[in-house]
Write a structure and sequence with these properties.
The protein contains 15 helices and no strands. The protein is an all-alpha fold. The protein is globular and about 85 Å long.
């Protein structure tokens, strides 16, 4: 009896040690990714700085007009440090960046951080709208097309997704603006709110969310209507991409042994699809979600200018036209940071979904 009690005592510590060892690979995986993230961000700042300096044109002339005086050019370059050697400019910029200072916009004469704090929520609201609806409809269409392979449903969805990928985004935006706003008057043509609508209290910067927090459903509906047209343009391309990837991923696992075994057990089709097929296809879907987020940010430049949406895309366009170097650098670093964070999240999701990744 004493021997039995002695053998049972160390069971809990052993179990704790095993759990600790099981978490170590995931911690190492996360630390490696975070270390790579820091190095990548430093490289991005250097590349962005060099590319900005390689842009043809004179920032002083672009901001002061066509015929500025030599004194005004000299004062402009001295104010923004443009007459310093490139290594000095980069080191100065990197030091300010570490302190959260992205410089002062040469057009708005405000800190770039303040400009971005106004533009980012607008783009975030549009991006969230596009990603949520793209994921819902894209995965649903992809699964449906795979389950109805080589039927009329499959062929119809393939034509739809091919058209969504092939049609230029700017043409689709202009067509939607002409039909739904100018021709039929069903939806607003641009901006985030009607001129007569009082903006909600600024809490998150997202008009729809802030309107709900205020309990103002009229403002929420107005903000949501303004999201539909620009969001639909981004959604159409993203839905097509997600749907095609999902269809391919589902077809790869549709006739696997474990799927046939699940059906042989008499499980419902819904259970087989959600717990067996979609779970196995999830890594491919997560991969394409990272691409979708990138496409949303890239398409926002065109869409925001077409629909007069005051977000990052419109700010980047105006900064590029006026050769506003601090603003261009600020936008580039912000977008790069978003890309890096999204890729980190995708890597972590891989580790959560597939145990082989976190144990490797």
């Amino acid at each position: 009896m004493a021997a039995t009690d002695t053998s049972a005592v160390p069971a809990a510590p052993v179990r704790a040690r095993r759990q600790s060892r099981s978490h170590r690979p995931l911690v190492r995986f996360l630390l490696r990714r975070l270390g790579a993230l820091v190095l990548l961000l430093i490289g991005i700042t250097l590349i962005s700085f060099l590319l900005t300096q390689a842009v043809p044109g004179d920032a002083a002339i672009a901001n002061l007009g066509q015929h500025p005086t030599e004194e005004s050019i000299r004062a402009f370059n001295e104010k923004y440090g443009l007459d310093d050697p490139l290594p000095v400019q980069y080191v100065t910029y990197l030091g300010n960046l570490v302190q959260g200072d992205l410089g002062v916009s040469q057009q708005t004469h405000q800190p770039v951080v303040d400009d971005l704090s106004v533009s980012i929520p607008a783009t975030a609201e549009l991006a969230i709208f596009a990603i949520v609806f793209s994921t819902i409809f894209g995965v649903a269409f992809g699964v449906l097309a795979a389950l109805r392979r080589d039927t009329a449903v499959d062929h119809g969805l393939r034509v739809f997704t091919l058209a969504g990928i092939s049609v230029p985004m700017f043409w689709l935006g202009l067509l939607g603006l002409y039909l739904f706003f100018f021709k039929w008057g069903l939806l607003p043509g641009g901006g985030r709110l009607d001129p007569t609508t009082t903006p909600p209290t600024d809490v998150t910067g997202l008009n729809t969310v802030d309107a709900l927090l205020d309990g103002n459903f009229a403002t929420f509906w107005d903000a949501f209507k303004h999201l539909i047209l620009p969001g639909a343009v981004l959604v159409l391309y993203s839905v097509s991409l997600i749907s095609r990837y999902t269809r391919s991923a589902v077809l790869e696992v549709l006739h696997a042994d474990y799927v046939r075994a699940a059906r042989a057990k008499g499980l419902s089709e819904y259970t087989v699809v959600t717990r067996y097929i979609l779970r196995a296809a999830l890594p491919s879907i997560v991969t394409v979600m990272g691409l979708v987020f990138a496409n949303v940010l890239a398409g926002a430049v065109l869409v925001e200018n077409i629909f007069n949406w005051p977000g990052i895309g419109q700010y980047a366009y105006r900064s590029a036209v006026s050769l506003d170097l601090p603003a261009i650098m600020g936008v580039s670093i912000f977008i790069a940071l978003v890309y890096v964070i999204v890729n980190l999240i995708v890597d972590l999701l891989y580790a959560v979904i597939d145990p082989r990744v976190r144990l490797s």
